[in-house]
Backbone:
């Protein structure tokens, strides 16, 4: 499977995490699945992980964050997000996530963002053979 992890899931999948997002990311990057990512998602993830509140709660150091981002860039297929129809997503900041999935021919977007679960986005994604799943919904598909 070709999978895009939204930054809200990737932020929960950092190296010191132990929840379902981390388990899912480890399973995907162990193969045979393909992680699809864009430079936009890497930059957004870095921004999120360096929030002071998240730094305190995660226990991550700046070096941990840098290593995590470098690891993702190495193990993933990097694409440039494709254009997304205007006004499809409620939050325009979500467009690069869907655009990354489109550009990378992803079959799954793993997200916890409610904006992706609207009827209109679901219909658009389904028409392009993209499933929108949470990390908990994705896990059973990855256990082989």
Residues:
């Amino acid at each position: 499977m070709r999978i895009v992890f939204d930054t809200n899931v990737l932020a929960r999948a950092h190296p010191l995490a132990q929840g379902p997002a981390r388990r899912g990311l480890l399973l995907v990057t162990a193969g045979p699945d393909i992680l699809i990512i864009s430079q936009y998602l890497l930059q957004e993830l870095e921004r999120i992980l360096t929030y002071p509140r998240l730094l305190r709660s995660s226990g991550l150091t700046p070096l941990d964050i840098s290593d995590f981002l470098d690891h993702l860039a190495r193990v993933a297929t990097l694409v440039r997000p494709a254009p997304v129809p205007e006004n499809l997503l409620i939050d325009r900041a979500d467009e690069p996530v869907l655009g990354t999935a489109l550009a990378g021919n992803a079959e799954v977007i793993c997200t916890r963002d409610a904006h992706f679960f609207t009827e209109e986005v679901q219909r658009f994604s389904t028409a392009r053979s993209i499933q929108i799943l949470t990390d908990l919904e994705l896990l059973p598909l990855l256990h082989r």
User: Anything to note?
Assistant: The mean pLDDT is 95.
